[in-house]
Amino acid sequence: MSKEMKIKTFDRILDVTQDLIQTRGYSSISFSEIALLVGIKKPSVIHHFPSKSALVKAVVVRYRSFFSNALNQISESKDKTALQALEFYFIPYIDVGSLGQKICLCGALAGEFTALPQEIQNEVRLFFRDHQSWLEGILTRGKNSKEFHFDDSPSKLAALFLGALQGALVVQRASGNLNYIQDVIIGLKMKLL
Amino acid sequence: MSKEMKIKTFDRILDVTQDLIQTRGYSSISFSEIALLVGIKKPSVIHHFPSKSALVKAVVVRYRSFFSNALNQISESKDKTALQALEFYFIPYIDVGSLGQKICLCGALAGEFTALPQEIQNEVRLFFRDHQSWLEGILTRGKNSKEFHFDDSPSKLAALFLGALQGALVVQRASGNLNYIQDVIIGLKMKLL
DNA sequence: GTCTATAGGTGGATAGAC
DNA sequence: GTCTATCCACCTATAGAC
Fold first, then answer.
1. Is it the case that residue A114 has pLDDT exceeding 70?
2. Residue B30 lies inside a defined structural domain of this protein
3. What does pTM read for this prediction?
């Protein structure tokens, strides 16, 4: 028996805001636009989140926590090879890239980094550090198990992976070449042979 | 005998605007701020560039043309090896990254791509296509001359190089790791052995 | 929890004096 | 070419009724 659940206004505001940032960035979006897309009025948005900064911080916190859970789950499932774990990591990049207009939430915010309120800068910084160290962990595991063969340090290679994936989404959208992220992932995987 | 030349207001506006975009992006900067940094008033800026869109377009056109000249010069100097040509290409990325607060002009604009006026979107798109095809050319030359050894297609590898360099600048600034761009370049160069 | 009304500020852009 | 003054649209945010 599936209980019908209405998505709460609170969550719909978060969804709409995240979508807008991934599409257009931080500075160019406004309460009025969010309100319009949610289907309420501007002061109702502010009732749930007292400031733009607080709203966007909540979006990034939720985003970080989504990935934190997903990445922990991947790391802990010992039946997965290191390559399978990496393939799972690539999926959201491929998915968001295929839409053609969106990039990673934190990639979008990082593009305007110096224009962001400090509390948001901090969250974005943590996102990249989390992903950097998760990638380092998977690459190290694959190297130790002789599954991967590379001469770089795992830390430098993780930097290459993270930077390339983030950059590929940005360049793909701007250049209009919809194969960009796929091509980059192929190039990254060839570093592991 | 060096003739003293005052930098014209016109060019100082372009310089200040470019600097601001590389630091903070497109949407969050304003005529007032540009005027303040140039040392004139807002309507004086608008006297030189009739709209924000026209001003930023002029900045991107100048930026593209700077790189267009530099890259042509590198390609045409036949005394340079393909690796030396690549090393020249890396220099501006290393330089801008070392400042800690700036990224590529077009990388910054691409992060807000969907928020940009169409005429600016077009310029940014051309920047990435120019750089993609220049990299493709150098990589092809190095492969044909047996200087480089890689199994990817030159096109896919060029995508990896461009995406990784752009992404590395963004992630470096946001994560606060000042070695990021260097680490990524090391990883890229190892693809050529 | 949602609304109307509004405050106070800043945005891009214009008119017109010097 | 630079300025003061001004316009109007839009921004974040608040007060207070329902």
1. yes
2. no
3. 0.97
Give the residue from B64, B128, B135 with the most A CB atoms within 10 Å of its CB, the best one to mutate. B128
For chain A, the domain total comes to 1
CA of A80 to C1' of C14 (A): 65
B46 in any annotated domain = no
Q: How many CA atoms lie within 13 A of A33 on its CB side?
A: 13
All protein residues with a CB under 7 A from any atom of strand D: A 29-33, 42-43, 46, 50-53; B 9-10, 35, 40-44, 47-48
Chain A nearest-CA residue for B169: A163
Tokens standing for residue B182: 């260097």
pLDDT of B144 > 70? The answer is: yes
Closest chain B residue by Cα to residue A182:
B156
Q: Up-side HSE of residue A37: CA atoms within 13 Å toward CB? A: 15
Average pLDDT, chain A: 96
**Residue B12 domain-assigned?**
no
Chain centre distance of CA B158:
16
Cβ-contact B21, B29 below 8 angstroms: yes
- Residue B135 is part of which domain span? 52-192
Give contacts of A94 with chain B, Cβ < 8 Å.
Answer: none
CATH number of domain containing B78: 1.10.357.10
How does B46-67 read in b/e, with b if 16+ C-beta sit within 10 Å? bebbeebeebbbbbbbebbeeb
The pair of three-digit structure tokens given for residue B37, joined into one six-digit string: 């940094």
